[in-house]
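Supplementary Methods. Inverse-folding protocol.

Structures were first reduced to a discrete structure-token string of length 343. This string, shown here, constituted the complete conditioning input.
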């Protein structure tokens, strides 16, 4: 395979990506927002959005295909998440090396939202239905030059809500720079580029197209890796409503200050990496905290915790978050190396 051709292809795709995203982004809400829910417990423990965490776990590549590599060859990653309400998410992903410089992966992710009562336009109960989304994905990455690696992820999306269904095609383009001597990682990702193939009841919905930039690094012998990820960069204003204390005197207030908008674009993470056998992580997502802005929100809203153990034949990762007092989310990842099991 011609490396010069691949370098040019990745460069053109990544240079065109931000311009395309700016032109495509419009005011208003988007559909297919399940694409913003990570399938990685390690990422969820770091705030739910992270495109720079370089490790040898296939589950951590779901938000940046440039983190995929031949060092993960023959890995099978399995994930499960207990989300808000009766929502349960699960999936699997397999990866293999592609020559000396490349790697590919394939996977499926299922998003189930429990059982919902159905009614007609007059309010008469007609039964129950179980809405769901499914994402089929395939990724390819390539070592472009030195510390640089590029990747592409293609996702076929299927949604079924009662009698309505829709399909869409989305693409992620990623670029990562990683210097192992300084444990420095820098990434840029164009996420969820694409559009609908089949509409819900002839209604057009746009994908949650996004531009993301991330940095992660540890310093000297201090065994903590810090990370900052900027996302939702296709628009600056991300206002939210502060609902007050639920008293009769309080009224909802729209928050749209400079500092509010700035921090709703940023996700912070810290990871204890003193041993190759385990890790502990802490994340803070201000957007999650303010999206759950109710009088019942607790101190832990916006924070997430994660932990992982690397055994000889498998890796296991856990993550936990409590957006508000009525919702605790939990994620579990299991990673197996097929070659280790067979031998």
């Amino acid at each position: 395979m011609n490396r010069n051709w691949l370098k040019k292809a990745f460069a053109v795709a990544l240079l065109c990506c931000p311009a395309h995203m700016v032109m495509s982004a419009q005011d208003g809400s988007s559909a297919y927002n399940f694409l913003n829910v990570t399938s990685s417990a390690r990422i969820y423990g770091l705030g739910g959005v992270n495109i720079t965490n370089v490790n040898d776990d296939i589950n951590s590549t779901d938000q940046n295909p440039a983190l995929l590599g031949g060092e993960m060859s023959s890995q099978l990653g399995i994930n499960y998440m207990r989300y808000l309400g009766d929502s349960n998410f699960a999936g699997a992903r397999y990866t293999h090396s592609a020559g000396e410089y490349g790697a590919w992966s394939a996977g499926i992710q299922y998003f189930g939202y429990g059982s919902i009562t159905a009614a007609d336009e007059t309010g008469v109960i007609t039964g129950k239905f179980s809405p769901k989304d499914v994402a089929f994905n395939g990724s390819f990455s390539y070592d472009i030059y030195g510390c640089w690696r590029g990747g592409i992820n293609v996702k076929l999306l299927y949604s079924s809500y009662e009698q309505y269904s829709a399909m869409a095609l989305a693409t992620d383009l990623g670029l990562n720079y990683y210097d192992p001597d300084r444990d420095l990682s820098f990434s840029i990702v164009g996420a969820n580029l694409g559009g609908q193939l089949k509409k819900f009841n002839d209604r057009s919905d746009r994908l949650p197209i996004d531009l993301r930039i991330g940095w992660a690094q540890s310093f000297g012998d201090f065994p903590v890796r810090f990370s900052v990820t900027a996302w939702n960069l296709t628009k600056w204003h991300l206002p939210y409503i502060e609902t007050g204390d639920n008293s009769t005197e309080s009224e909802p207030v729209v928050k749209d200050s400079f500092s509010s908008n700035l921090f709703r674009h940023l996700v912070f993470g810290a990871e204890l990496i003193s041993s190759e056998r385990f890790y502990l992580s802490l994340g803070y997502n201000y957007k999650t905290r303010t999206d759950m802005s109710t009088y019942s929100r607790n101190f832990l809203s916006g924070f997430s915790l994660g932990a992982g153990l690397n055994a000889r034949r498998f890796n296991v990762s856990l993550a936990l978050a409590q957006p508000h007092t009525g919702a605790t989310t939990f994620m579990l990842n299991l990673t197996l190396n097929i070659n280790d099991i067979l031998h």
